[in-house]
Specification:
The complex is a heterohexamer, with two copies of chain A, two copies of chain C and two copies of chain E.
Chain A: E1 2-7, H1 16-29, E2 33-39, H2 60-71, E3 75-78, H3 79-85, H4 90-96, E4 107-110, H5 113-121, E5 124-128
Parallel strand pairs in A: 1-2, 1-5, 2-3, 3-4
Helix pairs in contact in A: 1-2
Chain C: E1 2-5, H1 14-21, E2 27-30, H2 45-54, E3 56-60, H3 61-66, E4 78-81, H4 83-92, E5 96-99
Parallel strand pairs in C: 1-2, 1-5, 2-3, 3-4
Chain E: E1 12-17, H1 26-37, E2 43-48, H2 76-79, E3 87-91, H3 92-97, E4 110-112, H4 114-122, E5 126-129
Parallel strand pairs in E: 1-2, 1-5, 2-3, 3-4
Classes of the chains: A alpha/beta, C alpha/beta, E alpha/beta.
Chain lengths: 130, 130, 100, 100, 130, 130
Amino acid sequence: MKFAIQVNEGPYQHQASDSAYQFTKAVLEKGHEIFRVFFYHDGVNNASRLTIPPQDDRHIVNRWTDLAKQYNLDLVVCVAAAQRRGMLDDNEAKRAGKDASNMAEGFRISGLGQLIEAGIQADRLVVFGD
Amino acid sequence: MKFAIQVNEGPYQHQASDSAYQFTKAVLEKGHEIFRVFFYHDGVNNASRLTIPPQDDRHIVNRWTDLAKQYNLDLVVCVAAAQRRGMLDDNEAKRAGKDASNMAEGFRISGLGQLIEAGIQADRLVVFGD
Amino acid sequence: MLQTVNKSPFEKNAMQSCLRLSPQGSAVLFYEDGVYAAVKGTRFESQIKEATQQFSVYALLPDLEARGMRAEDVIDGVKTVDYSGFVDLVADNGAVQAWL
Amino acid sequence: MLQTVNKSPFEKNAMQSCLRLSPQGSAVLFYEDGVYAAVKGTRFESQIKEATQQFSVYALLPDLEARGMRAEDVIDGVKTVDYSGFVDLVADNGAVQAWL
Amino acid sequence: MDDMEGEGTIKKFLYLNRKAPYGTVYALESLEVVLIGAAFDQDVSLAFVDDGVYQIRKNHNTKVDSGIGMKDFSKTYRVLEDYDVEKLYVEKESMEERGLTKDDLIVPVEIMDRAQMAALMAEQDVVLSF
Amino acid sequence: MDDMEGEGTIKKFLYLNRKAPYGTVYALESLEVVLIGAAFDQDVSLAFVDDGVYQIRKNHNTKVDSGIGMKDFSKTYRVLEDYDVEKLYVEKESMEERGLTKDDLIVPVEIMDRAQMAALMAEQDVVLSF
């Protein structure tokens, strides 16, 4: 079965990203397919490569990157939500004349249409939020 | 009278940062003093210089930077909360071996002691959160 | 003391806890989504009316107006203030306790 | 349908709205801070017991355990699942509605 | 974006709006999804439940440079019709406990009781929750 | 940091904890403030009210590599004593409606009724809310 996942909150502040990760991992380990993980609202902050969590804590961003690598996941960050909150890849930074980018490996920026498409293409959409 | 302000949520997702800004501005316009504005939890995300809000919307980060310039405000971002969430100045980035920083002008990174000190030094501490 | 409530009483328990536990004589300010507690006609109206006997109750006008309400929509006994009035409430009432 | 509730019933109205509006026969999963609704001894116990008549009610065990509770602490008629069971609930119950 | 993949499939999408406007960004960013989603020609319904009914209350009054300093986006609900988004539902009890009637709302809606709302939910393929 | 400025001033600080642990980060980051704050020799009280009482429930059980994948920080409450943070209060009704007794808690606390809790609040100089 094909699953799509929506993540509405950033790392650490709310459990949403943790729950979404554990759920996504379980989906994959059971042999189902993940069509896409879509990061919306503060969820875009899960894509920052600049986080430095304490040594004894989980590394939420790297966990997503590693899972994406292992299973070839499509991790999509909403462009409109990302711009509001200062989450940029190299292209977006260049286009906007910003002197830095902060997006981690394994994520890509795209439009809200990707969320609707995920709703259409996947058999299930599961939303994790506050 | 000396006021201290604590901001617990990031820009746009919750009204906390907006309310804190309007309140801080009103404090200053009435001739009171702002001892410090302390950004904690997701509040650290108010310090990103990479945000690109829509043209017709308010620019939350720039508003803080401008107010700080006008009134010589002390805008302090909690280092522990900031590291978890990927908010770094040049020094922090260098020390952690990160290839970019994202902190806006007018903010500085420091420890939680600065919040306690604000509570001691100011006549009032006002907390804005979710 | 000044007690602040910024959440809708329909969505969260902040207002209930504030009214249950705040020291008598506190000023209570509703702002952000908290202002819905202060308007006439909701199922919380009688509770707020009662609260005005124990507390000085305020609502932030800019938050009311943003959400489509006006000063005359608030419950009798509740006063409206702007941000400048919010600052005065903080200055005049000692420690501030935020019911987040 | 699968209904998910991730907020404490003491803090937010999500559980109340879920139980009021969900189609009969839905599966209801409590997870994150939502699991407090599923344990014995709280003031919501009788309401949840009643809900088990209309809905299949579940609680996520890892969230219960993290918060100091065990499978035997949940109300009779509520089943516990792990993340794998959460996936099965989604697969088996059609559309998922999150009460955020 | 490969919208074409979705061609032919028509699913029932429900937007479940339960949060007040301005206090959090969910109302605004939900509306942004609805507007983008309209291009996909799906069978779309919007439900306003709990504090979600406040999103479509009349007479919102704020601008970037006055009031709470956020833009009033409520008039956008009026243009949904032009996007062929015409199925707007509010829940009866949510209206009543807030003392609201249809006259207080900025757009025409259908009022549904518990049972009707449950029936609407039961027939959906995808529920986007805000 | 100019801690010295605060020397001599002793204020009454109340930490008001009203949120459950793990679902959000407030419990953990509140504890981090308490630990740092202990160095300032102020008159500190911790109040656990509403879901805040769940923070100090016994037998939390999760690790970064099992369960919900977050570290269990509840044992830190036990070391507060070593930091001379000894005034821990829980509200009676909050305990009762959750079916909890003192035996369910990981640290010794004093149980207060409404009136006692209100009196505690009334005597504070600074309230940090989480």
